[in-house]
Fold each of these.
Amino acid sequence: MENLNGIAVALAIGLGSIGPGLAIGLLGGKAMEAIGRNPEAAPKIQSAMILAIAFAEAIAIYALVISLIIKFA
């Protein structure tokens, strides 16, 4: 049973971090592309990018919490 618990923890954090990792990469790339096209809008684009990255990172934190609950409960 302990082995299955470890596999569940690994899957929870592994699969739970794939989406946010891809999202943060896409957000950063598209923001840099937008700033390159319109440098005057850089502060507005950057603040929106940071907010979106924070929301995406929250999903990874939820996955971490779930994996810790699986491990210790």
Amino acid sequence: MSLFDKTSAALQTSLSMRQLRHNVTASNIANAETPGYHAQKMDFEEALARSVDLDGLRGMSTSNEKHFSVGGPTAKVRPDIYENPEGAINNDGNTVDLEKEMSALSENAILYKAALQMINKKMAALKYAASEGR
């Protein structure tokens, strides 16, 4: 049995991908006035599902406890980052919608903080179990 379960791995992956999404969105905001810049977009949910294998169908499974685990929550999956096809092109060729990007940045920050709080609660429960839960 592992100390850190699939939920912990999902939360860890979520934090990593939320950080990457923050970087992509911040880059879009920083380039809002750059002529010819095309806003980038990231598929967060798809990449997270691939990484933690939520439905259990994508990874390889083991039939014996001596087998090595392959894939699963520790698999390094990178999300797809591509030009946002929904962006309207301004006169200068820029496709950044500053209001949408600021909104996305705020939403991402809230969800990052929520995932961080859940990790902290899991760690507090482990600490309690190890020190006081007799």
